[in-house]
Amino acid sequence: MPKLITLLLALVINLNFSLFANPTTDHGVEVAEEIAVEQVEHGHHPDTSMLFFIIVAVFIGVSTRHLLKKLPIPFTALLLVIGIVLGSFSRLGYFETWGSLDVSFIKDSLYNAAHIDPHLLLYIFLPILIFEAAFAMDFHTFKKTAVNSVLLAVPGILVALVLTALIVIGIDYFDIGLEGWANWSLALMFGAVISATDPVAVVALLKDLGASKKLGTTIEGESLLNDGTAIVIFMVFLGALTGEADGMNGILKFVIVSFGGIGIGLFMGWICVKWLSRIYTDAMVEITLVVGAAYLTFYTAEHFFHVSGVLALVALGLVLGGPGRSSISPKVEHFMHEFWELAGFIANCIIFLIVGLVVSQRTQFTASDFVILLIVYIGIHIVRAIVLTMFFPIMKNAGYGLTKKEGVVVWYGALRGAIGLALALIVANINPNDLVSTMGVTLDQAIEIKEEFLFLIAGTVTLTLLVNATTIKMIIEKLGLLKLSESKLEMRASVNHYLRMAGEKKVNRSKQDRYLKKADWDTVESFLPPESDVKIGDEHEEKTIAELRKKLLEKEKSSYWHQFKEGMLPGKVIPSLTEGINNLIDENGKLPLSHRKDLEDLWTIPGWVKRLSQSGFLKKLRHRIAVNRLAESYDAAIGFVLAQDECISLLGSIARNENVGMEMLEKLEEEINANKIAGQSFIRNLRSEYPNIYETLSTQRAIRTLLDYEEKTVERLQKKGRIDVGEAGHFIQDISERRKKLESEL
Hints:
It is a single chain. Helices cover 77% and strands 1% of the residues. It has helices at residues 2-13, 15-20, 26-42, 49-67, 75-91, 104-114, 118-136, 139-153, 155-173, 184-194, 200-209, 213-242, 250-276, 283-304, 309-321, 330-361, 367-395, 404-412, 418-428, 432-439, 443-479, 486-510, 521-525, 541-565, 574-586, 598-602, 607-614, 619-657, 662-689, 691-719, 725-744, and strands spanning 97-98, 101-102. A two-stranded antiparallel sheet has the order 1-2. It starts with a helix and ends with a helix.
């Protein structure tokens, strides 16, 4: 037993050593065991400085978000500044001793964080950031903006890296600086690294400001894709500079690496969707499965197949966050998104503090380097403007399109971040002798090139975060992208009026409460919503009805997800129902609510089903096939009708509480009723033409209703304290088993 404990200590304490030991021999284990024995006997402790840094980073992130949230500076930019300050203090020796107190452990933790292995940075944190962004992205919006994102991420980045390469070669050519940079492999690699954008700060700001979702998705989609493109191109030129190129044609390698990564991501996504569809409300299993899938996808793509792990993660995230979203158990889906949002927050806390530490502790520079940095900073913005100008004629008409004002935000909001810095750290770790042999420079020049590369990337990251990220809000406001339409303002004013009226009624009722009679009611009433100065009228009928249609469509879509979470609507019908709504919303409320051509195919009974139902061959098999085909249409029709009922209820609430003309309300009610009649007609036709199949489908739905009622009853009993958590889990597990039995019989 002591020997076993010693061996376990060896594995934990000497993890880095064991990674390089030969696992196929006993020698590595023996050496690790000897080191562990020596450390235990002599009281030596493992280096936990990185663990200390992670703990501190989390608390710094939490404090920054909570205490400094009112500052007009993005969260990530604040973390960068804090990292620079901490690194500078450490570099000046402030974290060695405080009087007689030895605080060198702080210096060690900051030093180790600044000198973290860049590959570790990519393999540990990159899967979280990339997958979280792709998983949280609205799939329908991404599809509509994908053309613009791809244009900027593939041909756009190719143009950008060439133009950027010309800038740095020009700096060398005109003897401004960057001696030895007149090498196309180095210059193009630099262009690829500095073109990798990081939208974290800008997208978060756009969400907070309530800006257009399509704008944020375009910026985020471009970043996800161009990260993959930049890394692929970077690796091609890195191999040329280090002498490790495999001789494959660069264009062919780019295609294989890019599409290979996408293929692996789609394949892993397909496996996850199939697996998740067989798990019933087990949050731990489902979340762990998705986390494991994200890391396995990245590792498999990069390590085994040598293709783009970033693009693999993007494909995986889009599959699970889009078509595969309904495969996640209804009661786990929200928790899943919350988990990944939390993981992304922690990863950003650590990464941007590391960025600040790298800037302050690892960069070497002179006064002339700042002049070069300024030229590069201005240059990448000029290059970005050229790229957008080149592709704007296509982008303004593709998908949702792109206006000139939105183009300005896309141009100015192209921040640089963690990906570029990680790639720059890889360059900083290159053996300078490799550059001597491949570039024909001296050893001193090779070392200087590495330092300049890291300084320029780190400096650009710092400038874009401190300048662009902090001023983009002002630019968005100046461009008028946050301005609401008159009809939207009127609707908000109407809701505000309703809230004030409801609040006044509550105050009047509270005055009768014997425990509140002595309250200062003038003070209480001062907390009522202020009266809006927007005048509400009927002169914008067309715009108002369009806004109401969009509101009702959003209500219909939320109804489907609510039915899904309640267990009454199978996940497989969600995409077919919501896609049509998304397309109608894209029309900005111009089309009637009854314009639902997407449901005609779903509710058209195929001829082969009719022929199959009349056949006398293999009665049970043909019945099962017909039931499976019609089950989706049946469930969709019932869910559709129930959603229309909820829209009618919402319309009634609008009629009672908002100043909307009766003619508009009647028109909308007619459109909703037309939808309802279409759904009910399909159900009646199904019942009359296929009574046996209808009976089977009705039975299945009745069973779902029963199981859902049982589950809610168990939850209610647990809340009342009649059963504990363990007992509730037992009953829920039994209900889940019966759900599995029902699904297996379909």
